[in-house]
Amino acid sequence: MAQYTPPLRDMHFVLHELLQVTDTFKTLPAHAEVDVDTINAVLEEGGKFASEVLAPLNARGDAEGCSLDAATHEVRTPAGFKAAYDQFVEGGWPSLGCDPAYGGQGLPVTLNQCLYEMLNSANQAWTMYPGLTHGAYECLHAHGTPEQQQTYLPRLTSGEWTGTMCLTESHCGTDLGLLRTKAEPQADGSHLITGNKIFISAGDHDMAANIVHLVLARLPDAPTGSKGISLFVVPKFLINADGTLGERNPIFCGALEHKMGIHGNATCQLNLDGARGSLVGQPHKGLNAMFVMMNAARLGVGMQSLGLTEVAYQNAVAYAKDRIQMRSLTGAKAPDKAADPIIVHPDVRKMLLTARAYAEGGRALGVYTALLLDQELSSTDEAVKKDAADLVALLTPIVKAFITDNAWISTSHCLQVFGGHGYVREWGMEQFVRDARINMIYEGTNTIQSLDLLGRKVLADNGAKLKKFGALVRQLIEDEGVNEAMAEFINPLADLGDKVTKLTTELGMKAFANPDEVGAAAVDYLRVVGHLVFAYFWARMARISLDQQASGDPFYRAKLATARFYFAKLLPETAGLIRSARAGVKPLMEMDEALF
Amino acid sequence: MAQYTPPLRDMHFVLHELLQVTDTFKTLPAHAEVDVDTINAVLEEGGKFASEVLAPLNARGDAEGCSLDAATHEVRTPAGFKAAYDQFVEGGWPSLGCDPAYGGQGLPVTLNQCLYEMLNSANQAWTMYPGLTHGAYECLHAHGTPEQQQTYLPRLTSGEWTGTMCLTESHCGTDLGLLRTKAEPQADGSHLITGNKIFISAGDHDMAANIVHLVLARLPDAPTGSKGISLFVVPKFLINADGTLGERNPIFCGALEHKMGIHGNATCQLNLDGARGSLVGQPHKGLNAMFVMMNAARLGVGMQSLGLTEVAYQNAVAYAKDRIQMRSLTGAKAPDKAADPIIVHPDVRKMLLTARAYAEGGRALGVYTALLLDQELSSTDEAVKKDAADLVALLTPIVKAFITDNAWISTSHCLQVFGGHGYVREWGMEQFVRDARINMIYEGTNTIQSLDLLGRKVLADNGAKLKKFGALVRQLIEDEGVNEAMAEFINPLADLGDKVTKLTTELGMKAFANPDEVGAAAVDYLRVVGHLVFAYFWARMARISLDQQASGDPFYRAKLATARFYFAKLLPETAGLIRSARAGVKPLMEMDEALF
User: Fold this and answer.
1) CA of B46, closest CA in chain A: separation in Å?
2) Rounded to whole angstroms, how far apart are CA atoms A465 and A451?
3) 3.40.50.920, 2.40.110.20, 1.10.4160.10, 1.20.120.790: which CATH number matches A162-291?
4) Domain extents in chain A
5) What are the Cα distances from residue B539, in Å, to A588, B350, B410?
6) Which of A257, A579, A587 is opposite residue B424, by nearest beta carbon?
7) Which residue in chain B has the smallest CA separation from A178?
8) How confident is the model over A509-542, as pLDDT tens digits?
9) Whole-number mean pLDDT of chain A?
């Protein structure tokens, strides 16, 4: 069975050495008191919960899956899931990043992000239940009426109730403008909602007393398309005036999806048959309200894949040190054994280091983005807020798509390290691959992320947001340009920065002539910019590690070696990606649809 | 459920237009009579069997899997598998490529290869049963004693019995030198074999009357390591002197593996407890004998992944034409519908064309390699035999690793085209991905293939085999260098050819100084050479298609468009791969093992 050790040392490095998060927290009144000791204590406890309570349930949850009682429409989660959730609630974990006005601990997003990486390493399917709850909390916190907030936020904060987001219908996922679920206004101001939703994660289960569904539907007078969609909060059990649970609302699980992975999460078809809900935000502006939840969810998906990359790496390393097979081509390394441990073989190391470099790069990016989000949410300086918001907007699709694509590559490599043993359930590696695959799809496919990045975040404002990130890169290049020891990192970073600038300009020009040029280049473009972002963080991490070489702490030797690996073996991918991006739209569109 | 249509038109193109296989067959006395009509008739019938009989069993076989009766140690295959196998045997399909001396039809490997592509598209898990049987047939045909051949070959040819290859033990897969299974010589010349094998595909089942296991084991006087391994044939039921089945041999399935995919194939742990077998080939030379089987199996694994790429492509295209979602960025293409079919979106096309280009390129390479194998096996001209054998040796690891890696990319892209619907079982796409994953592992992992290519096939003979392929490339460049219409294909092909030459020389030099340089570069190198081979075939296919543009046949328009896509969007990957390969071994080896 797979093992998991929380990567606390690397988290400390990212939080305290690379980003010095407490310096930023001191500028934010809401978080000024959050010090290093608090952060580290929370992470240590969270890591214990992840590794001791959740990780042992992961393979079991995958094998057992969820089940639906066709008579009662109740969903049962795998053995142990509810007990673990009770423990999570008792520990106060759901409230970590929530508003003290509703019983939350008011800690920074940054800390919650690190917690979620660990929970996802241990058990992504389980973590989706509280993860979606936090999304529902954020949406109602931003857009709910005072009454809705009073009714729902304390219970979502405590974890007593969980949440979902009900967007997809069988005929529409990406294109929500097509959705058909209807909301009929009632005399008392509530709405009766009727329709069929699919792919609803954590859509029904036995872990909490109530489920707070956030449902997209159309009002009778709605314009067609995406501008006629409203958002409603629809509880599984109606809530009495005294706060107790009332009658069952007719929103029932009709079937569970049989999926490639995340078997422990109940992915439901939900049938609403006049379920009572109340409007959240303005009529017909449901997508705006939902996007609060969606953006948080996209960062969350990045953390899911970061978690899987980390845990797959850890297990592959352990196996590669233990498994003996063949001799090193440079002579026996373990002459006392019948063969050498496979970690002596260069390609095994390449697979391991790929996962390691993507995990550590992803952690730097994920925590950095969360820190920006804390500034966006909590800064009292409008200029800081604006800059942070712009960078969050730019980086969100990269966190989502680049980290999830990297996890697909990394978990597959880690499986490969096990050879045939990676393909069987026993070691847990193939589950990581199967679980990782969904992250490239939900909360906006990775193609949608790339269109969001190139079309909306970069070209739509003439590269203004990209230039804000570019300024950070340029600053680093200026600061380190004279440092000879940094040349191996700064030169390729500067080179890639120039190429991204040129590529962006070129694509902008082409897009004027033909909007399909954006769609043709976007996926390659996102990966190139993702590498620019990673190269920036790897250069900064290398700088810190170079400074610390004299300390003798092996952590910094490993960090420096991983940085060198990243620049030598992973960054070069950009050479091909840029060529492909520049090849343009013609090779994609010239074939008639009928000829496919 | 997934659909499948045999790609007969493209097979005809590859066989008759690209490779003109009957011209080669005419030079081989054994196949001189095999004409176009025969070939096409066989493929049409084989395609019918695949699409009508096997394809409908694929998803069911995945859901049901195999089961082991713990009391009897008998394995049951999914519903319908045995009936389909009976029909396969009745149709004479197992005998297609077998020796007429044992009841075979004596048709070329080339034809069998095309048949197997289709069977694998329809149902890889099922196809492994006859696939392994054919491997056992080839091994005994090459190395069996006359008595063994008389006993086993007629029944393997007819399909009445099936075969396995029993190599792996729990502590050794890649490194067979470590294996422990023992063979004790008996007074009657037979051997009693004792040991435990794992991961034995088609290791036990209810589809055939007997199973012919080819088992690697050590004789008492065996030297240690890989030079002390002998091969034995061990039937599930002993065979009486009159050819009837005798008592059950103690080779029992102890457990079935729970795998990521190919659930319909029984992957067995086999326990041999003094099972009676007879030596195949020379004592201690078992690996040599097994390699006959292994090389055929490697080509077979390439065909498995080619089949999966093709069927995933077909289903993704059908979905992309049918599913409506969003409008084209260049304006509505289906204004009468609520949205445009997703095939209008450039990145959807990119994913589809990636699978298409890899399928069609893989088919050209797979059939070409099979044709060379026919020359190696059946030519009466020693020089032709030698050239063919050299090219087969060079191309086998490419067929195995490049096609299976491409299938992993392609099936994942095709899943992605379906969005969330690709992640659920219903459409069958996620099964293709899960099934494809094993192909990168078994019959020698793709890392092993790459070491075989760079170390043994290229550097060990100073590039002599590679130069034979290079001569074909150079001939094409000379022939087409003056053809302006071909410049878009010939220029990048020539450029890549030069780069491969330089890279090979550079790696050869480095390998002198440090043998680990081979292991560090091999995986990148194989992918670069794989692209060189594909670029060569795509250029030739483009040439034929250019010549046929005036015919108005849309097949050639599609082929030309796919060639252009390949050169514009897939070949550029080589730029990054070459940089990574040249970065050498240091970034992989400088980190101490303890720091991982």
Assistant:
1) 24
2) 15
3) 2.40.110.20
4) 8-143, 162-291, 445-587
5) 18, 20, 21
6) A257
7) B338
8) 999 999 999 999 999 999 999 999 999 999 999 9
9) 97
